[in-house]
Amino acid sequence: MDPEKQQLRAHQMPDFEAQIPKAPEPNWIKRGLVAAVFGMALFKMSHISREYYGSRSDILGFKPIEGKCPSQPKLVPQGYSNLDFILHDDDFAKGELKRFQGAIQVPTQSYDDLGPVGEDDRWDIFYNFSSYLETAYPQVHKHMTVEKVNTHGLIFTWEGSDSSLGPQLIMAHQDVVPVNKETAKQWTHPPYSGHFDGKYVWGRGSVDTKNSLIGSLSAAELLLEQGFKPKRTHVFSYGFDEEISGPNGAKNMAKFLVDKHGEKSFFSVVDEGSLVVEEDNYAMLIAATGEKGYADIQISVSAPGGHSSMPPPHTGIGIAAQIINELEDTPYRPELTPENPIFYTMQCVATHDKSISPKLKSLIQRAGKDRWANRKLVEILYGNPKYRDLIRTTQAIDLVTGGVKANALPETTVFVTNHRIAIEHKVEDVQKKATGNAINIAKKNGFSVTAFGKEIIPEDKDSKGSIEVGFFGAPLEVAPRAPTSGPTWDLVMGTAMHVFRDAVFPESKDVFAAPGIMTANTDTRHYWKLCDAIYRFNPVRETAAFGIHTVDEHIEYQAHLETIAYFYELVRNSGGENQR
């Protein structure tokens, strides 16, 4: 995952108290406990000051729809099943443990300041990793075509027998977040030891994402050993700089695949993403069918310098502070529309979670056709930190610099605001809001404004200074949404239903699939031209994975075996009928 991706359990339903708001109807009363779904007291919308109301739902009006949880039966491959062997055979487990540990022991760290491949020798560790894979997976390297893109990007192609079937793409990344030298001693076991304590495998990358990389290759190796021949071509794509957004790896690899196969040529894509959420009475298999957009906006304030003993009413830093205050005092309005996969996540919870109150269940189910119910549900979700950022565009001031000396007025002050753009918004909406915030402050202080190359308030002889608004790096629009019905969803999540329903969870637990959304971006940001059906799904129980991007990253080894089982069955299921 990229450096900002800290929401590993973003869809987890924590236990907490919440009140169901009182409806206008006389037969509605306030509720006390809402078990297992929402985790804190109702956050009243009146507490949110000066919200930004530029949402499309207000512009277009409320469009009632009948929201339903996407039903998904399990998809079982024809013929024999090897789930019991993969999950419970001691000899198989011992061999796979060595493979997994060996991968973790290669410290494939990627750094923000890496130079070009071939010039910066810190990339050379990836030679070690590809050599290790060649030794660990002899059948894969014997029977698949291996292509290297920009030296370290690994693409394995397993040709299928039916060329009319679009290829299936399975993704992961080789690189890991660097271990902070200052906290390395805090690890229970050395970060690149791959230590196994009898239950957990410890080490950087054990969760993110050498688990899925090794899991998918091990599944392929086992199938090849058994003489399996797929109908559908399978491509395994492993980038090497996802943690720094993939400019050297995935960006070039995606272009390579588009050039080779053509645009929209792949059947579906499976990459890292949401996990399997466990509650007392159900397990929700979440595949993120979309990602929020991304934009960093830089605002520069230029003002005359001079001696600090004779300051103006507001220095350049003061003007910048006013703009920052204006930005933060006008947050984006939260909203929940059917465009957002979280809308359907909630429908699935209402359908399957027997512990929630009847009133809350009704509130969720009415949210697509009742404006009042929708608003009240938004209030509840906004009051829960795990949901708040999934239903709004976020803005965070992350960088600021200005001034060079304590007794000299700052001539230039610059700050950067990071935005994660909600499904209902576009990059253009973020541009307009940031520009509007800057204009409001400029007018009060007599500053000129230029925004994204266009002069908004011209500079003249009376101008006290200037404000410039622009992008800090390239923005990214909201990702296209993958289907939540049809052959691609049936394959990806039907296989997950089969593995987790038949082999992982007890019969007493209700198991179901649901769509979700990523607040951050995976390497799939570069693959939009290749396929519309992109699913970000980690076949890992959220109760079995810990420490992503921090001290003591580790995973339950049984969960790693479950990952192998998922990819094994995914490949076997991929040549079924009605899959084109």
From TrEMBL:
Cross-referenced Gene3D superfamilies = 1.10.150.900, 3.30.70.360, Zn peptidases
Q: Which UniProt keywords apply?
A: Hydrolase, Metal-binding, Protease, Zinc
A GO MF label: metallocarboxypeptidase activity
Question: Which residues are involved in binding Zn(2+) 2?
Answer: 173, 208, 271
Sequence positions that bind Zn(2+) 1: 208, 243, 549
Q: Name one GO cellular component term.
A: fungal-type vacuole lumen
Q: Name its GO BP terms in alphabetical order.
A: adaptive thermogenesis; amide biosynthetic process; amide catabolic process; amino acid metabolic process; lipid metabolic process; proteolysis involved in protein catabolic process
Q: Where is the Peptidase M20 dimerisation domain?
A: 289-435
> Can you say what this protein is called?
Peptidase M20 dimerisation domain-containing protein
Instruction: Name the domain of life this protein comes from.
Output: Eukaryota
What organism does the record attribute this protein to? Yarrowia lipolytica (Candida lipolytica)
Task: Name the Pfam families for this protein.
Answer: M20_dimer, Peptidase_M20
Which family does the record assign? Answer: Belongs to the peptidase M20A family.
Q: Where is the active site?
A: 175, 242
Query: PANTHER family under this entry?
Result: N-FATTY-ACYL-AMINO ACID SYNTHASE/HYDROLASE PM20D1, N-FATTY-ACYL-AMINO ACID SYNTHASE_HYDROLASE PM20D1
